[in-house]
Every structure is written in C-alpha cells, then in structure tokens.
Amino acid sequence: MYSFKNDYSEGAHERILNALVESNFEQTDGYGEDYHTERAVQILKDKIDNQNVDIHLLVGGTQVNLTAISAFLRPHQAAIGADTSHINCHETGAIEATGHKVITMKTDDGKLTPSLIQKVVDAHQDEHMVQPKLVYISDSTELGTLYTKAELTDLHNCCKKNKLLLYLDGARLGAALTAEKNDLTLADIAKLVDAFYIGGTKNGALFGEALVICKDELKEDFRYFIKQKGGLLAKGRLLGIQFEELFKDDLYFELAKYANNLAIILKNALIEKGYKFLCESYTNQQFPILPNEVVKKISEKYSFNVERVIDENNTVIRLVTSWATSKEKVLEFVEELNL
Amino acid sequence: MYSFKNDYSEGAHERILNALVESNFEQTDGYGEDYHTERAVQILKDKIDNQNVDIHLLVGGTQVNLTAISAFLRPHQAAIGADTSHINCHETGAIEATGHKVITMKTDDGKLTPSLIQKVVDAHQDEHMVQPKLVYISDSTELGTLYTKAELTDLHNCCKKNKLLLYLDGARLGAALTAEKNDLTLADIAKLVDAFYIGGTKNGALFGEALVICKDELKEDFRYFIKQKGGLLAKGRLLGIQFEELFKDDLYFELAKYANNLAIILKNALIEKGYKFLCESYTNQQFPILPNEVVKKISEKYSFNVERVIDENNTVIRLVTSWATSKEKVLEFVEELNL
Amino acid sequence: MYSFKNDYSEGAHERILNALVESNFEQTDGYGEDYHTERAVQILKDKIDNQNVDIHLLVGGTQVNLTAISAFLRPHQAAIGADTSHINCHETGAIEATGHKVITMKTDDGKLTPSLIQKVVDAHQDEHMVQPKLVYISDSTELGTLYTKAELTDLHNCCKKNKLLLYLDGARLGAALTAEKNDLTLADIAKLVDAFYIGGTKNGALFGEALVICKDELKEDFRYFIKQKGGLLAKGRLLGIQFEELFKDDLYFELAKYANNLAIILKNALIEKGYKFLCESYTNQQFPILPNEVVKKISEKYSFNVERVIDENNTVIRLVTSWATSKEKVLEFVEELNL
Amino acid sequence: MYSFKNDYSEGAHERILNALVESNFEQTDGYGEDYHTERAVQILKDKIDNQNVDIHLLVGGTQVNLTAISAFLRPHQAAIGADTSHINCHETGAIEATGHKVITMKTDDGKLTPSLIQKVVDAHQDEHMVQPKLVYISDSTELGTLYTKAELTDLHNCCKKNKLLLYLDGARLGAALTAEKNDLTLADIAKLVDAFYIGGTKNGALFGEALVICKDELKEDFRYFIKQKGGLLAKGRLLGIQFEELFKDDLYFELAKYANNLAIILKNALIEKGYKFLCESYTNQQFPILPNEVVKKISEKYSFNVERVIDENNTVIRLVTSWATSKEKVLEFVEELNL
C-alpha cells in the first residue's frame, strides 16, 4: 500500500537530518535565542528581500494561526475566511477558542475575492455584530488552487480600503510559489499581506513554520503570545537549523517543485482518462472526481483521503504528493489507471 | 564558556537521532496515529504498570499544562500551585489565558502540603469566588526538591477528601525518580495522581512530553483539546519514535541518573567550600547561595542563571546538569572553585 | 413619530412598577438570595409543572445565552443554530468570546430541523473539527415563526439520538405560547428541552429573563457561572419581584396575547393590501415585503427597522408590537395604509 | 433583625423610583441610544468637568470590571491589584475568565503603593512571564480606606513611568468623595486615572455604574465590548434615568454623605468602648475587631458579615451603612453596645 494521503507522511529531507546530527552537541540558548535561529531569520529576510519584517519560527500550522490571529485581533473582531478554509474546518475551533468568530463565505475554488469580503463588511456595521478585521487566505488553498499576483493585489486593496488585515496561511506556500501558473514571489507576498507564514512541515522539514509579520503594528511583544499559547519550543534551535537548511540555497523550492511535478503527472494521466476535477489545481494536491469503482480499484494499492461524495456514483478523492513521494510509485499509479 | 544554564542546551541523545534517521522514509499516518506512537504508548503503559491509563504525546511542557488543565476544569474552577510553580511564574499566563485562575501559596521549598491546600479550600466556599479544583505540583520541583511517597500519598488523600484533582508536572520527572532520596516509581505516581506527564525535552529527547491520564473521567475526547490548542503534531511519529527509544530499555532513567550524579558532584564541592543552598536538592538543579565575587569569578568561564538576589553581598544562582553535560567540565568547575 | 421598532421601547407594566415601589424599603439579602426571588422561582416551577428544574433569574438575553452555553459546553464543543439565530447575528460574537464555535445552517424561516442538525453532526466526526453538542433554537424565532409540539418533539428525539443538548431561547416565549397556531405549553417545553429561558424584557418587565435548567447534569454550580460572567445582580430582588408579578396570575400571557393581537391586525391589513411576507408569523413580529414607496410613506409617521433589501423596488421591514403598543396607533397605521 | 450587611439591601431612593414611573410610557430607542442616557452622560461630563471623556452606563460592577479590563488589555497583559481587591477575591475569576492574570500584592489597608507596583514590574521582565499593564485600585477600598490626592498622584506618576494603565473601581466612590479625610474630586480623578467608574448600585440606584474612559486610546469600539459581554441593557434608558436623577443636583453626594455619617456614629461608639479596627475607615464600611461574646450579642438583633477571625477570642466584623440605613437603628445599636 503506497500513500498519497498527504505531504507529511515521511520524516525530513536528509540534508535536514544531517544538519541536526552535525549540530547536536553545540550548546545554545533556548527558546529561539540561538544563532541558528538568528541565521535562519536573516536568510529568510534576504529571500523575502525585506529587512524590516519580523520572523518567528513555530512548530505547526494550527499553532501559528491561532497565535497570530488572536494576537492581531481585539476581542470583538473576527476573521473572514472561505468556508473551506483550514481555520474553519480543520482546527477544532482553535480560533474561536481564543475568542474570535470566523465568518465564512462559500466559494467554488477555496479562494476569497474582494466582492465576497465586501459583502461581509457591508453586513457588519454596528456593535451588535462582530467587527470583521482580518482576512484569512491560503496559498496554495485547501483545494490546491492559487492566487495570482493580480488577485492578491486586489485583495490587498480591498483590505486597505476597509481597514482589514490580510493574513496568508502558507502551509503549502512552497507548492504555490513553484506552480506552473504562479506569478508571485516571497517578496511580492511580503508587500501585499500584513502577515503570512512559510510552511516547512509539508515541504521537507520534520516540522516548522516561519511566521513573517510585515505590518509594524502587529510586531510588538509577539514572543509573549508564542509562549502563552505553548508554542515557544525549548530547543528552538531545531527550528533554526531546519529553516537554515531549507533556505540557505533553494532546497525549499526544489522540494516543492518536485512534488508539484509528480502531481501534474497524476493530473495529466487522469485528464487523459477523461476524469474531471473539483477545481483546477497546479499544485501538489489534486482532487479528481472518480467513479466509485475506480476509487475502489485504486484503493487496493494506494491510500488517500476521500474529499467529498458527489453523487451515488462519483466521489472526489484527494491525491497528495511531496518531496518524499516516489516517482516510481507515481508512474506505477498512472500505469494501473490505464489497465 | 561552558553552560550550566539548563538541561535543554543540546540536541538529543544519539540513539534518538539514529532512530529518527532509520525510520525517516517509512510512510505513516499523521497526528499520532502511527505505529511508533502506538508502540511508545504501549511501552509506557508497561513501565507504568497500568494498562488502563490514556497516554498522549505532546511537544512541550507549557503546551501540556495548558491543554490538560483547561480540559480538566470547568470555567469557574481554579488550579492551586506553589508560588514558584511553573504555571504561575514562567508560562506567560497560559492557564489564565484559557480562563482559569491559578491560586498560589508561598512555600520555602517549592512543595505544596495538605495544610496549604486545605487553607485554600477553606477560604473559597461560595460562588463569589472561584472554585479550587486542581492541585498542581512538580516533581522534581522548580527548586530541585522532591516529593516522597509518603508526601504524595498525603496529597492524594487531601485531594480525595476535598474532591480535588491532583496533577503532577513531570518536566523533570526523570531527575526526580533517579534521585538518591526518591522512593517513588512511575507506578506509584500513576496510582496517586489523576494525571501527570513524563518530560522528554529535559532528559535526552529533541522535544516531547508524555501526558498520562489516570482518572477515567478526564480521558474523554482529549485529542480534541490537543488539536484545538495547536499541539497535535502533524508528524506525530517523531514523538512516538523518541519515547520508544527512551523507554524500550532504561535509557530515560540512565540519562537522568547521569545528570543527577554530575549535579551532586557540584553540590558536594560547594558544600565543602562552606556554601549554603536555597533548599536541599538531590536532583540536577542546584541553587547555591554564593558571595557575589564568587559568582563573578565563575561567570568568566561558565554561564548559568541568577535565581535571586539574597542581599547586597550574596546571590542564589542555578546550576543545571543534563544527559549531555560534560563530566570533564564539571570536574574542571570543581577545580576552579578550589583555586 | 410612533415606533414599531421593537418590544422594549417603553418601561414596564404598571403592576411591576407598583410592586417595586411597594417593596422598596424591605431589607433583603443580595444576589438573588431573597424571598422575592425564592417565591418567583416557586411560582415558575408551578407554572412549568415541574418541581425538579433549577431556575435562575438574569438581567438580559445575551447574558443568559453566553452564561448558559459556556457553562454547558466543554472547550471543544460547538453550538448549532440557524444562520438567522440571535447568537450568530446579534450578540457580537458573545458565544465565540467564551471559546465556542457557532455552526450555522441556512433556513428560510429561522427554524432548525432534524435533517439540518443531522447534516452538521455527520460532517463533524473527528478531533480535527469541533464537536457539535448543543442545538440552539428560538421560540418564537428571530423571524416571528413558531415551533409546533410535533416539531419540538422531533428535535428532542434527534438531539437525544445524537447526544446533543437542546436549548431554547425564549426571549419572545410569551409571544410564542400565546400565538394562534401554538400548541406548546411551558410544561411541554420543560419536558422536551434541556434548558430554556422565559423572556421578561420583551414582555412587560423592566428587564429580566428566567433561565430554566431541566437536565440534572447541567445544574451543578450554575451560580458560579452567573457571577463570573457579571450577571449576578446585587439587588437580585428586582428580578424576583418582577417575575413574581408577571406569573402570580396570568399577566405574562395576557401581555403577550395583547401584543400578538395587535400584530395580527397589522398583518391582516397588509395581506388585504396584497403584500407578501418574508415568512408566516403569528406573533408580535411581522416582516412584510413592501414596495419602497410604501416604506417611504409609512416611515414619515412610524419608525421601524429594515430587515432586508429584496430587490431594487422592494424591502422587508420589521413591525413589532408589545404589551405597551397603543391599539389606537395600530388602527391609525392600518388606516394610513388604506389611504 | 436589622441588617448592616451591605449597602444594597434596599431598593432605590424614591426620586429614582419616581423618575422611572414618570418616564415609563415614553418610547425610546434601546441599548443606551436614548435621550435620558444622553442627558445623564452630559450631566456627568459636566460634573467631572471634562467634555472629552467617554461615558458608558452598565448594570453592575463585576460587569464593568471584566468588560473594561478585557477591552483594555492585550492577551499577554495582566492586572495588578491588592490581595484584597474585588477582582481578586469576589468576582469568581471574572478577569481570568477573559484570559488575564491578576497579580496580587499583600497590603494592610487595601491600598496599592508605587513601591508595591514597582516590585511587580521589576519581577516581570521577559516573555516567559505575563506583562503587567493595568493597575487596579478601589476608592473607597474594599476595607473602607481612602486614597488621598497625593497618593493618587503618586500612583499616576508611577503608572506613567512604567507605561501602565491606572483603573479605579468606584463601586463606593460616593462614600470616598464625601468622606471626612477625602481631598479628591471627580475632576481630579479623571485627570489622574485612565478609566474609572462611578457606582450607583451601592449609593441609591436600583442598579447602575457609570464607566468613565479618560484615555483616548481606550475609547475605540467600546460598545462592542459591552454588547459581547452581555452588558448592553435593552432598556438602557433605565440607566440613563437613574444617573440623571442622581447627578442633576447633588443627590448622589448627599446620599453618600448620609451613609458615611451614620458609619462614623458607629465608629465613634466602638472607639469609645475601646475597640480597635482592622484599619482606619472614614467611609460607610467599618471593620471593628470585637470580642466573640460581643459579636454574639449584637448578632441577636443585627445582621452583618464576618470579615476575618483574628484569634480564638476576637473577630473582625463588617458594618455597612447606606443611603437607606435608619438613623434610629444606628442609635439603637450604639445604645445596645453600651448596655
């Protein structure tokens, strides 16, 4: 049984493991006050081409989302997200647990638009309702789709006009930035959003997400929030070492590109067989709509998640590739499909 | 400069690193639903000699404390702790951030007693005050001291009588259980408290704490709380692998014993020089009271934390040893002291 | 300008004012431990025909909702409500501020059904999502509609099957219970739901809502929650005196019936003019769909709220009557409509 | 049995009741957007001699404290209070329930000093601890004592120096401002603190506290917080009418002065008998230390609260007078004492 279930099924890229082994007996200060973290942060600032951002390394994505969003909002303020957004669906109410409503809008492709945001703002105008304050988007989205530079610029302008914060969840930012149709860079993103994070867990690290705070007003005292929410790793160096390794050259992008390429092989094979998709993805998550008998057949050799039941006969499944996915297994899958 | 600052200055014991490397390309399910975690949990249940406990592996201590305590308490209930307790002093209000007061009592040695607890209970008798419900203790304590089996039994009885939960923070449980004056076992603890955790971070792991829930009523739905608080590690296997390695034989106890032994060397040397201590510790944290000129002198070659200023001329410092501390450096320190 | 804006525009029924004046110099204990409150609670238990319920008197509806729901749920649990439900729309995220998600379902008439609830339950099956636990309904609803005994029984059964709590917001319970199509009694409701409240503010009191807790497991320590959320009125007698007066005979029901009757006069006049309604209401809130020029015309003499813009030419307004509404003004409104 | 238990045992001053009766059938907008509230706010601004403050009328003191403090603080920030402070002792953890620690300092007289505050600030210097941000004081204090203008100025300066907010709980501000040794005015307070409230419940109103926000940065969106915490009274006019009546002339001060005078009669009689007091109070709360047999004897005819057991033979009781206390009963009490 080979797994296309997700992009965190294996450990870490060997360069990361090597770096951990090599640095193992260095004595460093705890809680991210070590030189590996310092170096990783500097490398990231250079890659982002912005020395003015604040960067914090945390262990996981839900942790970053709940820490950042609860730090950025005042008690009466709410986040706006797509109904498919991770904070709405798969974080066990983590944002609400910090006291904030998540207002959701229905979308076909997991992407928010200025017009959807404006509707929310227009419907919340007095103190009997929460005050929408932060727009949460993901790139790539939970459905594998992408924001273009033009779209992100429009969101930026919409947020600016309405005094909203724009926050980008980059759990799969590597997949987004290396996708065929992408035209965004890290530097663009840092200019267009108020905060975002660069996901390591799903792209070759053992764990780790780099939160980038662009807007000055959001920076103050941020380490307090990390500590309070239980996210300040004692051996913070482990985060530093991993991001150093991922970004000191282009390893991060190479790993993501590799995953995307394998996903596109799967996608093309499925297209050739005439299958449709839930929405168009150029990244490492593909959501084909398959007849149930096909789903059953491939489930004999491969594991994956069911996304949604479409009707009696058809099901949307999710196929995910990663830096660790075997190309051989992908080709084998394609072959099986054609039998 | 050699550091006696804490027990999380280095990476991990090499057996742990090796285990991570060896298992690296296994595909496993995420979020702790992998066979390494399953095995680690089984090994721990055997060591604890209790198949009925629930065990969850989390990344860090503050995370365990806030997740467990907020899961165990209803909104109007409070924790009781020593004024030096970690949840009171060094977790940035993490417990209060989940809505619960921490009621503190002054102690000399960081240890709660039935009489201190009873005072709190007696002073909180109606709905205009919080309801004390959970007693938080640490073993070894934040001051390096220990609970004896008799003392823990008394606390257990006091809690039972007052319908209080007894929770033990075992960030340094290895140090406690392998200390000279200790007479407790993991099995004893599991019988006497309602929940406790076995700390990995400060005893040879990269990170990781094993929460053991003994009381049935506290077990339900616990994974929801871990996820909601951002503590459900995507690659949960990393926790499983580490605890497997630490407990499949006696590595965990050997590492702790090693650290304690080095601390006792420091302690004895300091005693010989006539110095007194903040309180009597048999574990890997020692709190000598030193003349300021001695503090100054040793700070030239060694780093450590200042615990407290006693008076104009004397300061309490904290010296910490760990599985990774160099015996050579300890002996060198002793030698310097005698110059 | 005469107001049909809401049912809390005036003070209180004169019998309530008289009772306050008469009792003014009695010395009583504070915080609801007085004999007026005791008597009011006993009278309510008799009216509900259930001596086993717990009853607490609070000042306002949002206060009751947030206090009760946060007391009843554990941190990972969520409430389910109609998208039009008061807790979702008009309480500034009060429920989320206590840490709990409100899962909403779209409805036409503001009423939840077993099938809508089942959909939510089926979509929330693991610890990566919140756990739906409490069903929030209002009777009469925010759109003026009613639950029948059969419908409430179905909801009761659906909740029982899915281990959900059923909670009824009775801010306008008087209007519901005295409406033409109603077949529920206070005693029925106490049998079918786990907790509900009887609204005084919108039916003749200066303020005050009586929370009735039917399910034993929800009763423990409830006064702690009221105090913690700021809802324990120092002069709790004010609540006792008002509920005593409203329920010692049938004043509460008479006032509600009066308000409903006036609303039906408005409704019938609007029907006669050929106007349609957002949904069919037999209670004191009517939501006619009116041409904009009609809206404009009546707004010259009457104030009311706009509920929703339907299209370029038509608007839904809300007309509300109360115990204090002038019948003369209602007839005048009808007359104006016919000019 | 006559009660000296507290200052909220009776209803309201008759002028307040009359005002409620007279205005009863006026139609007003809800939620404090009525002209009575508008007028009351203007009258208060005039009395405070500051047109720039924001004033909000709420129902009760715990509600004001939790709403204001949680609105003013960011998640990692804490309040500092005396160990006897109301938010620490008698609000069921209301502040912690909003996520914030209350750091307490031991005092003899219920009063904080710059030196106590500085100690707290000095002990909280990094992100592993909460950040002290708001100083909570009461005037008169929970022990009946007063702040002088010099003392409040010192606190103001200490807070300014340490970037702390200064918040004054005025549940018994009337008693403070009309006490013999007082040299503060409403205008002074508004200049020296960042926010405070003027208590109505304990000085002649049915209920009601007027929160005065002096610092501009704390004003924004405040009505959202009131609504979210359940404190926005539907018939907000009730608050407006009461404060209008209390402050349109000097009724508020006359009532407080009357209560203080009666307390001083009690105090002097007790002094004459040779009894000592817990601390020196010039306000309507007196805390004499009495032999147990005296306590027993007076408890036959009078009810009061026991504050503290001093030793085997002596007890501190609390005697409270109010606007409604009978002078005759006070004199009778004095007479009994002398028998």
Automatic annotation (TrEMBL), chains A, B, C, D:
Q: What is its EC number?
A: 4.1.2.48
What cofactor requirement does the entry state? pyridoxal 5'-phosphate
Q: Which UniProt keywords apply?
A: Lyase, Pyridoxal phosphate
* Aromatic amino acid beta-eliminating lyase/threonine aldolase domain ranges (all copies): 28-239
The molecular function terms in GO held by this entry are:
lyase activity
Could you tell me which Pfam families the record lists for this protein?
A: Beta_elim_lyase
The record's section on InterPro entries has:
ArAA_b-elim_lyase/Thr_aldolase, PyrdxlP-dep_Trfase, PyrdxlP-dep_Trfase_major, PyrdxlP-dep_Trfase_small
> What GO terms in the biological process aspect are recorded for it?
amino acid metabolic process
Under which main EC class is this enzyme filed? lyase
Protein family: Belongs to the threonine aldolase family.
State what protein this is by name. Answer: Low specificity L-threonine aldolase LtaE
